[in-house]
Amino acid sequence: MDESKFVIGCVSCNEKNCHVGHNKFPAETGFIKSQLTDFFAGYTCPFCGSSYVPTASMMKMISRFLDGFSHVRTTRKGIEVYGRDVKISFPAVPENAVPQNLDSELYQQFKNFLFQNSDEDLPILLEAMQDIDLDKWYIRIESANNPEPLLRDDVLWTDILTGDVINKED
After folding, report:
1. How many domains are there within the chain?
2. What is the pLDDT of residue 115?
3. What order do you get walking across the sheet with 87-91 strand by strand?
4. How far apart are CA 41 and CA 22, in angstroms?
5. Contact criterion met (CB below 8 Å) for 73 and 88
6. What's the rounded Cα separation, in Å, for the pair 59 and 38?
7. Is the CB of residue 68 less than 8 Å from the CB of residue 111?
8. Whole-number Å distance between alpha carbons of 89 and 80
9. Fewer CB within 10 Å, N- or C-terminus of the chain?
10. Within-domain flag for 170
11. Residue 167 lies inside a defined structural domain of this protein
12. What is the DSSP annotation of 46-90?
């Protein structure tokens, strides 16, 4: 990947699969760093018209993690951070709460593989996640500084031998 990318999508439209003919298209929009001012002005789902206006903490998190080395992905259950050969999941937590797994020996051992500066990066990430409804929106940051691509669960796979598109859910 040449440039880091921020992606936002509408959960509802993505679950409806946004079909065009027999093809499934993700209901999301990607922004590279030079395009973020367009997102920061507000985002509207191209399929349903729902809108999201990013907060200052969300803008700070996006700007910081685009320059970082970890991929970030949200699900309805919480946040996933993919660092250098390490992945950690944080459940969605109420405002001003801290995920329980931060005190674990395992997290302490691997946090430097997840964040450039965990004392600064993690609070920025958790604060920004308070500003987005995970039942309505999902976000992803695909870092160009991570040597491994972010492999998503909902991708379409192509069979190399036949060229047919295979949906993993089938």
Report:
1. 1
2. 84
3. 28-32, 5-10, 137-142, 71-75, 78-82, 87-91
4. 34
5. no
6. 12
7. no
8. 4
9. C
10. no
11. no
12. TTT--EE---HHHHHHHHHHHTSS-EEEEETTEEEEE-SS-EEEE
Residue 82 carries which side chain, given as an amino acid letter? Y
Give the dihedral sign, CA 69/152/101/66: positive
DSSP single-letter state for residue 35: G
The pair of structure tokens assigned to 77 is 């259950």
* Residue 166: inside a domain: no
**Cα–Cα distance between 25 and 28 in angstroms, integer?**
9
- In the block, which residue shows the tokens 């965990």? 118
Q: Two tokens at 138?
A: 């999902």
**CA-CA-CA-CA torsion for 138, 147, 35, 91, nearest 10 degrees?**
20
Which helix or strand (DSSP H or E) is residue 122 part of?
helix 118-129
- Report yes or no on 93 lying in a domain: yes
User: Consecutive 10-residue runs of the chain (170 residues): their mean pLDDT?
Assistant: 89 76 75 94 92 95 91 89 82 64 68 82 87 93 84 40 35
Q: Is the dihedral of CA 103, 125, 150, 116 positive or negative?
A: negative
Domain interval for residue 118: 5-147
Name the token pair of 25.
Answer: 């298209």
User: Which DSSP category does 143 fall into?
Assistant: -
| Cα–Cα distance, 35 to 101 (Å, whole number) | 35
Q: At what angle do helices 118-129 and 56-66 cross, to 10 degrees?
A: 140
